Amino acid sequence: MQNRTIAAISTPYGRGAISLIRITGEGAFAICESVFKPKSGKALSECRHASAVYGDIIFENEIIDDGIATVFKAPNSYTGEDTVEIACHGGILVTKTVLDALLNAGAYPAEAGEFTKRAYANGKLRLSEAEAIMDIIDARTPSALKLANASGRGRLSDEAEKIYSRIKMLLASIYAYIDYPDEDLTDVTVDEMKNELKSLRDVTARLERSYKTGKAVREGVRVAICGKPNVGKSSVLNMFTGEDTAIVTDIEGTTRDVIKTQAVCGDILLDLSDTAGIRQTSDTVESIGVERAVEEIKKAELILAVFDTSRALDTLDRDILKTLENETAVKIALFNKTDKECLLDTKEVKKHFEHFVCISAETKDGKDELDSLINRLFTDGAIDYGTPYISNARQYSEVCKCKSGLESALSALENGLTQDMASFDLEDALSAISRLDGREMTDDVVNEIFSKFCVGK
Ligand SMILES: Nc1nc2c(ncn2[C@@H]2O[C@H](COP(=O)(O)OP(=O)(O)O)[C@@H](O)[C@H]2O)c(=O)[nH]1
Ligand SMILES: [Mg+2]
Question: Quick one: fold of 155-214+388-453?
Answer without folding.
Answer: Four Helix Bundle (Hemerythrin (Met), subunit A) (1.20.120)
